[in-house]
Design goal:
The protein is an alpha/beta fold and 267 residues long. The chain has a single domain, classed as Spore Coat Polysaccharide Biosynthesis Protein SpsA, Chain A (Alpha-Beta Complex). Helix content is 39%, strand content 20%. Strands 1, 2, 3, 4, 5, 6, 7, 8 and 9 form a nine-stranded mixed β-sheet that branches. A hairpin with a 5-residue loop joins strand 6 and strand 7. The chain is globular and about 55 Å long. 33% of the residues are buried.
Length: 267
Amino acid sequence: MLFSIVTPSLNCKDFITDNIASVRKQGFGPDELEHWVIDGGSTDGTLDILARETDVKWISEPDKGLSDAVNKGIERAAGEWILWLNADDYLADNALKTLIEYARKYPDIRVFCGDETVLRYDGTVEQTLQGWDYSLEGLLGTRTSMNQASTFVHREVYQKAGLLDVSIRDAMDYEWLVRAMHHYRCVPIPQVLAFYRRRRGSIMDANAVKFYKRFLAVRRKYNCPRFSRAELQIRFYIYTDPLRRIPWLRRSVRRIKGLFGKAPLHP
């Protein structure tokens, strides 16, 4: 088994079909690719869709959150390479074939990060984020984000670094990545491997400040300096969040930034 795709899901019937189709289009048979959907007990019709997908392995049961759901998938995964692909995200065409090419080119590398296209709420393209090397200097500095949907991890990494921390309900992928990159290095792949869809009510959409607080907690764990550019940027975001929630003020700031060519890409 070459690949295991792990898809946590909860009430995502409007997106899960695209997710499954993108995995199926990769062109690998059941002896090379498995797709696990770990459902948290959907009630919106997601399970009806999964029941019709004969080439998808799935379970549906209550869990302790996203970290727990992903861990369940990883524990069941039989593939050499494991990809965490949320139900509202999907793979680019030939993403897995591209990964194979790079794995052959860099046989000692156990983490690869591809480019990732971000879609707005309406499905239009917002921007494409380039893959990067996930250096600890960057992760514990000013680059706290990861291209999670286009990050391929060898099963060996989970055996060495452990699974996601179930007690963490936001930025769990960031905390795990920092842990893993103490032992491994990552090679970027300059091709779009996945599409990340912004979705109202998603964990990232609803809990941005909690993500930034998690970044600070991880920095404390690894004794990062409190007086640094990264620290100031993170704290600035947290402390100014109440102002961003004032609609007229948010609109005004965005217009001013637009005059200088720096209008935010996302809502």
